[in-house]
Amino acid sequence: MKYFNHLLFTGILIGLVQFANAQDIVTDRPDQTESSSTVPKGSLQIETGFLLGFTEGNVSIGDERQILAPSNLFRLGLADGFELRVVSQIESLKSGTNKVRLGISDLEVGFKVQILKKENVNTEIAYLSHLIIPTGSILLTGDSFGTVNKLSIAHDINEQMSIGYNIGYNHFGTGKGDLTYSVALGVGVTDQLGVYIEPYGDLAEFETFVANADAGITYLLRPNFQLDFSFGFGITDRMNYVATGFSWNINNAKN
Questions:
Q1: Which long-range contacts link 3-8 to residues 24+ away (Cβ below 8 Å)?
Q2: Distance between CA 31 and CA 232 in Å, rounded?
């Protein structure tokens, strides 16, 4: 299965160069790379989905199965180039022989601000930050405040292809925190269909390097409504997930 995942990922990478035309709505799902764009002023964008994940654990902890159903990101454009963000999700987590932990994960509240966006420049830059608030259910909460921070940069390669990358720092209340990275290559297949591939991971506690990869498909059902499907797997560790969802920009419904 590990070698099949790598072959499939490589096949998607080779096939990307054949596709054309980008999509209209700009979302932060389904990839790990946050976009360098903000939603328009007065626009509410809902990005929601379902994820099933598996991570191999050690002898004492055991394997872990995670279900997010749903995982929600709400983005509200408060001004040009500035949005308010709220992350809330229902989570089911099972580790080893322990009972299933089912409830609400810790709430995240934050913002994204666009630092650079000019018509004559094909580079966009944005910064986002989330405060993790320990409001989750028992056994799912981290029991402490934390932060998620990312610098997002994107370049248009041509009219059909773009590349975005993030570098960030997360701290969950204890330890040194983690450095994070991701690089996403996106290509428009048609006016409605898009694909992407992405390596991502982190330097956990500034000591352990973790590398993963994922790929996915987006389909623009309407100018303001996008469906998605994605899957990912671990490179340095045994991990895999599959996810599906949709994004809806309410402000642009009339378009």
A1: 5/233, 5/240, 8/215
A2: 9
Beta bridge partners of 198: 214
Which stretches in the chain have pLDDT values below 50?
1-23, 59, 253-255
Give the number of other CB atoms < 10 A from CB of residue 207. Answer: 9
Taking the CA atoms of residue 94, residue 98, residue 100 and residue 104 in that order, the dihedral angle to the nearest 10 degrees is -80
The C-alpha angle with vertex 38 and arms to 227 and 152, in degrees rounded to 5, equals: 95
pLDDT of residue 96: 77
For the full predicted model, state whether its pTM sits above 0.70. yes
Query: Which amino acid is located at 244 in the chain?
Result: T
Write down the pLDDT at residue 61: 62
127, 150 Cβ separation under 8 angstroms:
yes
Q: Cβ neighbours of residue 159 under 8 Å, at least 6 residues apart?
A: 20, 21, 22
C-alpha 89: how far from its chain's center? Answer: 14
Q: What distances in angstroms separate CA 248 from CA 13, 114, 147, 217, 245, one per listed residue?
A: 28, 21, 26, 16, 10
pLDDT of residue 24: 62
Structure tokens at 175: 């330890």
What are the structural domains, with CATH classification, of the chain?
Answer: 2-249 (2.40.160.40)
Instruction: Identify the three-state secondary structure at position 158.
Output: coil
| pLDDT score recorded for residue 159 | 87
Q: What's residue 2's pLDDT?
A: 43
Query: Cα–Cα distances in Å, from 229 out to 8, 117, 141, 193, 198?
Result: 15, 29, 28, 11, 14
pLDDT of the residue at 58: 62
